[in-house]
């Protein structure tokens, strides 16, 4: 029982909950907020620099030929998710309100994760080279596509947030430029990066936690918890659970219905159903301002933790299936 709970609530999940509590009880204000804002900008740049440095060109080439799989993952991430978000509007607004619904829609247009999608695919014995290519492409394309989808699907006043073109420019400078520089330096630092993956993973998590604390602090100061009541938070959690269940079922069904083999179906499930906090939190800071930032982040924070818990269990289920198939043969 204890091992099962540790599988669901890993160290990062527990620390993230502590960071949310810290931002609620001790939000950064005044000069402290200025300090954390500057530190966050540096952390985000370093995070995406290292993402670029980690990306192996050999892995990209190995996976690029599988265009049918990548097309389906892309469609699930940037078409299926947003359609579900738009169609669910009449149900979600009475449950969670306008601002949190906007956060759900923002969640739906985000790119997929990179590290966890690849890790779960590997654990489940899926097509890892295809997962590397698909997840990495989703992350890069999302830097440009997500702001356009936000502008297309959301009614955000110009007084409350920047224009789509301005957002793309800001996001490109903050995320894409460090990513490109990091990848360009891979011939020089690639071996060092590959030999220190565990330490760099902690750096990734620390950067994400810092960004979450800074962003939530600003929202708490703006009165986030005066508008998001416990009942609403519970409704939002249930909504995220239902969304994940629908998407997991659809990705599994589509993979089987379109004739992909078992390894590819696993890759489609884990790459097509996940949303990236590492990309989403920095984007939210650029796309949303003032009182909109907190409600934009909450669905992502909740969904991200639920997807990690559920996909950890699902990956182990796939791995046991593979062991059983191998034993029977």
TrEMBL record:
Any Pfam family matching the protein: SBF_like
InterPro entries (alphabetical): Na+/solute_symporter_sf, Put_Na-Bile_cotransptr
Lineage top rank: taxon: Bacteria
Keywords of this entry: Membrane, Transmembrane, Transmembrane helix
GO CC term, one of those recorded: plasma membrane
Statement: the UniProt record of this protein carries the keyword Membrane: yes
Protein name in the entry: Bile acid:sodium symporter
TM spans (from-to): 7-26, 32-49, 69-88, 100-123, 130-152, 164-185, 206-227, 233-256
